[in-house]
Design a protein that fits this description.
The complex is a heterodimer of chains A (about 110) and B (about 110).
Chain A (H helix, E strand, L loop, with lengths): L3 E3 L2 E5 L4 E7 L4 E9 L5 E8 L4 E4 L2 E6 L4 E6 L8 E9 L7 E2 L3 E6 L1
Parallel strand pairs in A: 2-11
Antiparallel strand pairs in A: 1-3, 3-8, 4-5, 4-9, 6-7, 7-8, 9-10, 9-11
Chain B lengths: L3 E4 L2 E4 L5 E7 L5 E8 L3 E10 L2 E4 L6 E7 L2 E6 L8 E8 L5 E2 L3 E5 L1
Parallel strand pairs in B: 2-11
Antiparallel strand pairs in B: 1-3, 3-8, 4-5, 4-9, 5-6, 7-8, 9-10, 9-11
Classes of the chains: A mainly beta (about 110), B mainly beta (about 110).
């Protein structure tokens, strides 16, 4: 079945780059998403990438997709304390259900 | 972000009591979803809707029912609340392949 895996924690220093990784198993994935959840809030859609793209950049965020290895990453440049949150990777297959499958989330901790 | 509200935002109820949570959207999105979020389990889909009066079950639908009589409203009902249903409940909506989440409802069943 479909599965999305992420590491649970990442700790970085303020000003450094953060790279959050995600692997998925469904080779038919068409859309891959990154969400951010701050404490006490809902998930905020940060960005998404279509499977026919290798990279997408949006200000401090860079998404890289390696379809061969089924690996997705989110790079946050110049990480700030306000970036501390849980980041969820999700994927949606091109056939069958349109329901995304979510990873368990990576807790990003930014130290001053 | 999509205009999505959830009510109530917090609720404490007793075991055996029926509870209804409401999700309201102003974006005219076709799809609506109910998730629960629990430590160690991540997000789990309860029910979803792909149109007015069109709903289907998710992976953890036992003990829950839903209704969607208007595009903008999606109701989640716990017929007889149990302590295992203590959780944070999120509604999400989307036009097609995107999902936008509401702020959540924290439900405690004592």
């Amino acid at each position: 079945g479909e599965d999305v895996e992420q590491s649970l924690f990442l700790s970085v220093r303020e000003g450094d780059s953060s790279v959050i990784n995600c692997t998925y198993t469904d080779s038919s994935s068409t859309y891959l998403y990154w969400y951010k959840q701050e404490p006490g809030a809902g998930l905020q859609l940060l960005t998404y990438i279509f499977s026919n793209m290798d990279m997408k950049q949006d200000q401090r965020l860079t998404v890289l997709l390696n379809k061969k290895d089924k690996h997705l990453s989110l790079r946050i440049a110049d990480t700030q304390t306000g970036d501390s949150a849980i980041y969820f990777c999700a994927e949606r297959a091109s056939r069958g259900s349109y329901i995304p499958t979510f990873g368990r989330g990576t807790s990003l901790i930014v130290h001053p | 972000d999509a205009g999505i509200t959830q009510s109530p935002r917090h609720k404490v109820t007793e075991t055996g009591t029926p509870v209804t949570l409401r999700c309201h959207q102003t974006e005219n999105h076709r799809y609506m979803y109910w998730y629960r979020q629990d430590p160690g389990h991540g997000l789990r889909l309860i029910h979803y809707s792909y149109g007015v009066k069109d709903t289907d079950k998710g992976e953890v639908s036992d003990g829950y029912s839903v209704s969607r009589s208007k595009t903008e409203d999606f109701l989640l009902t716990l017929e007889s609340a149990t302590s295992s249903q203590t959780s944070v409940y999120f509604c999400a909506t989307g036009p097609t392949y995107e999902q936008y989440f509401g702020p959540g409802t924290r439900l405690t069943v004592t």
